[in-house]
Amino acid sequence: MPKGYIIARVTVTDPESYALYAQGSTAAIKKFGGRVIVRGGAHEALEGPARPRNVVLEFDSYEQAKAYYYSPEYQAARAHRVGKSEGEFVLVEGFDGPQPAQS
């Protein structure tokens, strides 16, 4: 079964509220069996605009990642982020098995 990934690129405008979001979302990630692959860290824009905070979450399946995002636990945490940051969040299906040669 292909894995599911949530990729977030964020600009935080209210660090105190975002800290509450981070606490709640971390608990929800654990509850849904997710793993943090990337959270913050050094980055540089290679093409197009970049945001200062980048996060990649891995779940055992696309459905599990989607269940995490729409869960009451994550939505409660999300309430601390909305209006306190700007960003893009996408859900992406990963490969199951060997990756194809082209992207």
Low-confidence runs: none
What share of the residues does DSSP label as strand, in percent?
Answer: 25-35%
Give the integer mean of the pLDDT values: 94
Q: Count the DSSP helices.
A: 3
H/E element string? EHEEHHE
Strand line-up of the largest beta sheet: 2-3-1-4
Which sheet architecture does the biggest sheet show? Answer: 4 strands, antiparallel
Helicity range: 25-40%
Q: Return the structural class.
A: alpha+beta
Distance between termini? 20 Å
Shape: flat
Number of strands: 4
Report Rg.
Answer: 14 Å
Short characterization:
This protein is of the alpha+beta class and 103 residues long. It has three helices and four strands, in the order βαββααβ.
Walk me through what this model shows:
The protein has 103 residues and is an alpha+beta fold. The chain is built from three helices and four strands, in the order βαββααβ. It has a domain at 1-47. 32% of the residues lie in helices and 29% in strands. The radius of gyration is 14 Å and the shape is flat.
